[in-house]
Amino acid sequence: MKGITQLRVGDPVDHFLLIKQSTKGVTTVGKPFMSLVLQDKSGDIEAKLWDTNEEHEKQYAASQIVRVGGEIQDYRGKFQLRVKSIRPVKADETITIHDLVPSAEKSKEELMEELLQFFFEMKNPLIQRVTRHLLKKHQTAFMTYPAATKNHHDYASGLIDHVVSMLKLGKSLCDLYPTLNKDLLYAGIILHDIGKVLELSGPVATTYTVEGNLLGHITIMVNEISKAAEELQIDGEEVMLLQHMVLSHHGKEEWGSPKRPMVREAEILHYIDNIDAKMNMLNRALDKTNPGEFTERLFPLENRSFYKPTFE
Questions:
Q1: Rounded distance, CA 278 to CA 276, Å?
Q2: Which residues lie below 8 Å from residue 81, measured CB to CB, with a gap of 6+?
Q3: Which PANTHER family does the record match to this protein (predicted)?
Q4: Cα–Cα distance between 251 and 271 in angstroms, integer?
Q5: Which stretches of the chain are assigned E, i.e. beta strand?
Q6: Contact, 65 vs 35, CB < 8 A?
Q7: Residue 98: alpha-carbon gap to chain centroid
Q8: What does the alpha-carbon distance between residue 200 and residue 156 come to, in Å, rounded to a whole number?
Q9: Of 45, 37, 35, 52, whose CA–CA distance to 5 is shortest?
Q10: From CA 246, how far away is CA 77, in angstroms rounded?
Q11: Each residue's pLDDT tens digit in the chain (312 positions)?
């Protein structure tokens, strides 16, 4: 059976799906409805439930498994699931959350093994110690969490997948531009998003925590670097530079960075982060697009559709 994101407009749906997100709303004429994001291993799709009530809100809350019947439709350039029937999974149906949560192609253990190899290229003992300390402190969550609630690397082990991909990109750039400080760049790549293990709730039906909403992963990580330096009794310019790498990695204030990059490695970190996030979104959108056709509109990429060439 094809996954939910591999279906085309007009295709029928009869799938077990996990409710990734569930939000209630009210139509312009005051009628309640629910917006759902439903997922299986292939990815996720949006759906609407009309004329809902409080019972529906409990039944179809995030993290619930449901069986959905309907069809795929095009809504403003984006695929949407038109729901004709929906019900909670029954006790005798053997489907589990694990069967429906998308995950990185490589295992988390394999990804961690790849990441650890980069420490052998680092020479600065202070940067190494702080980075190893924080990686070890958050390792379990870091290996399983997504990198976001939606858009890029929003699947189990997406965070470590994103970081390993960025490290490989960083290594290539260091080979091309030997003036780059590997220690600072590699450490910045490893640390820049670790705050997401406190910002987000986990790999299933991911939402923002209270700390995530009030502080955000950048502030969380700057504080974590301070704590690590105190615990390790490290005091040096390296600590401040690691904090700057994290503070500036979104590139601009309007994109969520309290500071713009002011160090060469911070500027490069911002580009690497952006490239890897966008490539992840593009690859996943193009994977479910036939040659000679356009992808659905990609909101994080200025709502553009991308063409898939007919040749390889």
A1: 6
A2: 4, 13, 38, 45, 46, 47, 68, 70, 71, 72, 73
A3: 3'-5' EXORIBONUCLEASE YHAM
A4: 8
A5: 12-26, 32-40, 43-50, 65-75, 78-88
A6: no
A7: 18
A8: 12
A9: 45
A10: 35
A11: 899 999 999 999 999 999 999 999 999 999 999 999 999 999 999 999 999 999 999 999 999 999 999 999 999 888 999 999 999 999 999 999 989 999 999 999 999 999 999 999 999 999 999 999 999 999 999 999 999 998 899 999 999 999 999 999 999 999 999 999 999 999 999 999 999 999 999 998 899 999 999 999 999 999 999 999 999 999 889 999 999 999 999 988 888 889 999 999 999 999 999 999 999 999 999 998 999 999 989 999 999 999 999 998
Give the burial string for 92-104 (b: 16+ CB within 10 Å, else e).
Answer: eeebeeeebbbbb
**Alpha-carbon distance 276 to 259, whole Å?**
21
Beta bridge partners of 26: 32
d(CA 78, CA 223): 39
Whole-number CA gyration radius for the chain: 21
Own/partner pairs, 43-47, CB within 8 angstroms, 24+ separation: 43/3, 43/4, 43/5, 43/102, 43/284, 43/288, 44/4, 44/5, 44/20, 44/102, 44/150, 45/4, 45/5, 45/72, 45/79, 45/80, 45/81, 46/78, 46/80, 46/81, 47/80, 47/81, 47/82, 47/83
Q: What is the DSSP string of 115-182?
A: HHHGGGG---HHHHHHHHHHHHHTHHHHHH--S-SSSSS-SBTHHHHHHHHHHHHHHHHHHH-TTS-H
Question: Which of 133, 132, 197 shows the shortest CA–CA distance to 159?
Answer: 197
CB atoms within 10 A of CB 217: 24
Question: Positive or negative CA dihedral for 100, 103, 107, 113?
Answer: negative
